[in-house]
Amino acid sequence: MIEDGGSARGSVTTVRRVGDTVRRPRGRWTANVHALLRHLADAGFLRAPRALGVDEDGSEILSFLDGEVAMRPWPAALRERSGVVELAVWLREYHDVVRDFRPPCPDEWFVPGVSWRPGRLVRHGDLGPWNSVWRGSRLVGFIDWDFAEPGDPLDDLAQLAWYCVPLGGRATGAGGEESRVRVRERLAAVCTAYGAEPVSVLDALAGLQEREARRITDLGGRGLEPWTSFLARGDATAIEEERAWLLTHREGLLVG
Question: Confidence class of residue 11 from pLDDT cuts 50, 70 and 90?
Fold first, then answer.
């Protein structure tokens, strides 16, 4: 948790806490993100920051979600099956609320070259545990909406499963069959809570990983940050390895 007056550096921006608010730099995507957060607030969806405007320095102002961010080691709640169920329920509720959202600037997102069109849903885009905020066993909400972009809702669910089940060689490599069974059970719990079939989620994840690796290679190769930094630290290669693991173990994740 950021203390009042403190700051924290993420993969995209540095944020400052001022009282019960968070200040972060604006970008061309900010109008869409603020419109999205206002849409959520107007619909009574409380488990996301509220957009509060712009300060005298030109930084955006967001409400502060008070709680523990799920960095490793994960909080106890997220290590339990009930924790991933809580995440999936949050995502289902978010997708139901955002389905009729229309962004004011359809072509202005953090990721270049992305456009909204009717029929597309605006996904959070960065659903890792590092953006989830917890208070005890209760999910307070998700923060860091900079990567919000139009897409398929299954991509959000696939990303959530990837990072929070989690799905990958590092999740099961040292634990043998017991770890593989646990991963399979957590995946099934996520899919049941959201209302999706595991096979559809795994297929969506394979596609998402392929596109993410290609995006890092393309945008990083053109010198665009933060993808240049992602490329330099080996993220594209790591994602390709995660995808290879997924394709190898796909059938085992679907049985039992």
Answer: low
